Predict the structure.
Amino acid sequence: MNIIKYYNLNYADVFIFDHYVINQIHEGVTIDALQDKRVNEIIQKHFSGKDMVYISNRIRSYSVDPLIYPRMELIPNLLAIAIVPKTLSMKKSAEFEGNFYDKPFEIFDTLSEAIKWADGISKKSD
């Protein structure tokens, strides 16, 4: 799939594709309700009425307030979340975060594995 749109936010790079979004947060950022709101606005702009998967490509170190996950569950067209951690400590953080999210939530070793999974989830919803 080809990229549809790219957003260079002051705290993240957001890549929009047909059925998924890849978000790469910048080093040292803490993701909280404010950043979550901006990404939600982007999702609604590009995926209004269309199911999608969120992929977090964690190539840099940052923090996530796990309380954003219950709010993300309220996004009706968000089918699932995939996390691609770069390090073991990032993987452990992602495993902890998964406890706060009740929709499908998977952790992958590579971005291509996450994209393949996202494509499969999206096809099931079509």
User: Anything to note?
Assistant: Strands lie at 5-8, 12-16, 20-25, 30-31, 52-58, 63-64, 78-85, 105-107.
